[in-house]
Amino acid sequence: QVQLVESGGGLVQAGGSLRLSCAASGRTFSDHAMGWFRQAPGKEREFVAKISSGGTRTYYADSVKGRFTISRDNARNAVNLQMNSLKPDDTAVYYCAADRLWAGVQGGPDYWGQGTQVTVSS
Questions:
Q1: 3-state DSSP of the chain
Q2: What's the pLDDT tens digit per position in 7-41?
């Protein structure tokens, strides 16, 4: 049982940066791979990034590769998404997700957060 709460969203100008955080409850947090998804208005929810339970492996969608960095701090039960060089197309609700399986966190996570809004102005 893992509960996830995102924070850190807001309004930023194109080219700027934001850092999203996902606070997790549950003693098995460190056993889970973690991921970030986003959903823009009128669009399907899309995968953004994921990180392995130990934090040694990461994977990014092509649309954010080189701009976003996912990290985790298992001691604090937290997962972060550092977003740099933001573009208006990055505007979306960002969701944190968790799964015990590396593939599962991307293809069908067991747990979701409630989402946090990111708006990038042009």
A1: CCEEEEECCEEEECCCCEEEEEEEECCCHHHCEEEEEEECCCCCCEEEEEECCCCCCEEECCCCCCCEEEEEEHHHCEEEEEECCCCHHHCEEEEEEEECCCCHHHHCCCEECCCEEEEEEC
A2: 999 999 999 999 999 999 877 889 999 999 999 99
Instruction: For 31-63, give one letter per residue: b (16+ CB within 10 A) or e.
Output: ebbbbbbbeeeeeeeebbbbbebebeeebbbee
pLDDT of 1 over the 80 cut:
no
What pLDDT digit, counting tens, does each position of 72-110 carry? 998 889 999 999 999 999 999 999 999 999 999 999 999
Please name which of 89, 71, 90 lies closest in space to residue 22, comparing C-alpha atoms: 71
What is the structure's pLDDT at 74?
83
